[in-house]
Structure formats: structure tokens, C-alpha cells
Amino acid sequence: MGRRATAMKSKFSPGSPADVAAFVRAQMLALVVSHGPEGYATTPLPLLPETNEAGEIVEFFGHFARANPQAAMVRDQPRALILFQGPHAYIPPAWVSTPGWAPTWNYAVAQFEVDIRLLPQENDRAIAELVNVLEGRKADAWTVGAMGDRYAKMLPHIVAFRATVIRAEAKFKLGQDESATAFEEIVAALGDTPLSQMMRAARQS
């Protein structure tokens, strides 16, 4: 197993590994980027993070469509990059009363260098765990049983994988360097949006 490392802390670093894990669980859809003989390949995939005792993400669980050429690519060259992007927005000077204030862009991102292992024997588990997370425990939650015989026929057309984290880096640029006045003006202009909610949470942590 590779050694995990995290970038040096800055004013835009998440407060804790748990903050990164919560961000990843909220976004869920990642871009999986890998490289092979014919160049780069990218697939958007919902991924489930797994954490250690310290709350750090150490692995992702997901699946490719077996027909996706990227599945064969990572079999031969398992190193890949997993990218999550959260809410973001351009912040214009018109929103801020401070003279000379320059425009900026607020955003939240997390990236993970990983080694991917294809595990077709875990196909059923990959689907079951994903459905459990997405559908929850509500009374009318959808289950794979609703597919009948089609489910067993579908499983061979996917391939589950686990991605072991080698290196992780996250940047939450959410107004941490703004004055109290500028910050309030920005979140007021954004309104009640996912970005303004993340900004307030980062300010309070």
C-alpha cells in the first residue's frame, strides 16, 4: 500500500480530515482521471469514501461500466486522480463596498492520487452500498429487487473497484481572508446557496 500524504496547511485548508470527508460525501460525483497509451481518460462516477480512525479518507469504492475503455486502462496502469468540485462562483467588486477590492472566485475542491484495483467479485456489494446511500432507509426506498431478473443480468456489465489513496489535497477558498464587512456583503449577494452555506460554516470553524 502506498504512503498517504497531505499538502501543507494554509488559510484555505479544510479544518480537519472530517471536513474533507463530509465534503466528498456531499458532492459524491467525482471525475476519475487516468492515463494510458492513447492519452488521458476521464469518467464521472459516484464514489463512496472510506475513512480511518482519524477521519481521513483512505479508500474509495465504486464501479465502472465494463464497456468503458478506462476500466481496461486502470487495470494496466492503476494510478489515477480523483477530483471533487463543490459549489463555486465569481465574486465581483460590485458586491463589496471596500475601495480597490479586486474580483475573485470562491470554490471548494478536493483531489486524491490513488491506485485502483478492479474487483469484479464485489460488483453486487458496490451496487448495494451505493443504492443504500442514495435511497436511504425511507419506506419507499428503491431496491435492486425491483429489477427482478434484470439485476443479475446487469451485474456482469459493470466492474467494481477500490481506489487506495496515495496523496490527498483539498482547498476550500471560502472568504477566509475577507474582512468581516466584505464577507457579509458577499454572502448576502450570494443568497441562501450551497456556496454561501459553506462559507459561513468555514468562517465559524
From TrEMBL:
Pfam families: FMN_bind_2. It comes from the Bacteria. InterPro entries: Split_barrel_FMN-bd, TR_PAI2-type. This is FMN-binding negative transcriptional regulator. It comes from Sphingomonas alpina.
